[in-house]
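thread: overnight batch results

M.L. [08:02]
morning all. the overnight job finished for the chain we discussed friday. pasting input first so we're all looking at the same thing
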Amino acid sequence: MKTLVLSIGLLALTTACAPDTRMPESSYQWQRRQERIEQDFRASQPATPTTPAPKDKP
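M.L. [08:03]
and the structure it wrote out:
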């Protein structure tokens, strides 16, 4: 009985902290979602060093 109560309590805690996986409903929410996805993608990409363009030689 005690393990049943503990398992139900643990289940309640883990589901209470679960991320919200519902899809956005408004266009504002879709825009924010897309911006967050793009920002996460850019942050995960390795930084490429930029090299200055060679100067023109006469």
